[in-house]
Write a structure and sequence with these properties.
Layout: H1 2-11, H2 14-23, H3 29-35, E1 44-45, E2 52-53, E3 75-77, E4 103-104, E5 107-108, E6 118-119, E7 122-123, E8 133-136, E9 142-154, E10 173-180, E11 186-187, E12 191-192, H4 199-211, H5 219-232, E13 237-243, E14 253-264, E15 281-288, H6 303-310
Parallel strand pairs: 3-8, 9-14
Antiparallel strand pairs: 1-2, 4-5, 6-7, 9-10, 9-12, 10-11, 10-15, 13-14
């Protein structure tokens, strides 16, 4: 089981899980699905203007492959996203003819998980049931793409030396964490990919806005910060690309992300940036990385591969 946990946290990939089904007959298929599809089955949907209760979905009925003829969850799309320029129209709008499972103009409707089904004109969450139909508060039907920068440095003592963990004997790693305005949870400083925007552009923009308060800076400060980030966000390593167990997910709309690791080995570049929370963040700080982290969505799952990459304490 420990071997499975390490591999799952490192990849969190739906296709890999399907492969594991065939290799590990002693572990329930339902347990695999439940582990990557847990937070999006919480009781109350997170629209703070309304109290929307999900239909409870037990672990053994998450998969669409399991018959559940009585399944009829509430149908909800928030009024707050209707008419927004960044959001899809309602599917009842005859002028809205999306191209599912492919690039649709500037909107990427492909899923990192693979091809998803369209049932009764609606895209179906590829991982399984969530207890809520509709789009919730997500802008797009189907996959909603995000990008998450993982910015790390070594934790150092007063002498400037790497601080070692007394048990493992390995150096301790820190990452830039932001406190989300909507849930109050600590998370990576990432966000949604705008239409026509590359993952690289999103990583830089979101870090600037959430961790460096870019939007409130003067024009001169903005120019300097952009230069710094352009220079320092050049050697990232892709850690994860796939589905996110996000509390906003529904049966017809879900989050996916690309997480990229940027490491400052000598604490002289990214490690000395002037952190200042902005945009959707109400707090920002360097946070120690260890196996007991409790973060938003499944952000914790990304760190095991980061630890392997730089040989840090876990």
């Amino acid at each position: 089981m420990m071997h499975f946990r390490c591999v799952l946290c490192a990849t969190w990939c739906f296709y890999f899980i399907k492969t594991l089904y065939a290799q590990r007959s002693d572990i329930s298929k339902f347990n695999f699905v439940a582990m990557i599809h847990h937070k999006c089955r919480n009781n109350i949907y997170p629209d703070f203007k309304n109290s929307i209760s999900r239909l409870a979905v037990p672990d053994e009925k998450v998969s669409w492959d399991i018959p559940w003829p009585e399944y009829n969850p509430p149908n909800y799309t928030s009024e707050s996203i209707k008419g927004q320029v960044w959001a899809d129209p309602d599917l009842t709008d005859s002028s809205f003819q999306p191209s599912w499972n492919r690039l649709d103009g500037k909107v990427n409707r492909e899923s990192y998980v693979g091809e998803y089904k369209i049932i009764d004109g609606r895209p179906l969450n590829p991982i399984g049931r969530t207890g809520l139909q509709g789009r919730g508060i997500l802008g797009k039907w189907g996959p909603n793409h995000a990008a998450d920068p993982i910015v790390t440095r070594w934790k150092r003592n007063q002498n400037g030396e790497k601080q070692m963990n007394s048990t493992s004997g390995k150096p301790m790693l820190q990452f830039v964490a932001i406190k989300r305005r909507d849930t109050g949870e600590w998370a990576l400083p990432g966000g949604m990919v705008d239409a026509g925007e590359s993952i690289s552009q999103t990583l830089k923009r979101e870090f600037l806005e959430e961790a460096l308060n870019f939007l409130e800076k003067s024009d001169e400060e903005k120019i300097e910060l952009k230069k710094q980030i352009e220079k320092k966000f050049t050697d990232g390593s892709e850690i994860y690309k796939g589905y996110v167990d996000d509390h906003r997910n529904t049966d017809n709309a879900w989050m996916e992300t690309v997480a990229v690791h940027f490491h400052d080995d000598d604490n002289k570049s990214l490690g000395v940036l002037p952190l200042h929370a902005g945009d959707d963040a109400v707090g920002v700080r360097w946070m120690d990385i260890d196996r007991n982290l409790m973060l938003y969505a499944n952000h914790c799952a990304f760190f095991e591969k980061v630890i392997e990459r730089v040989q840090a304490n876990w």
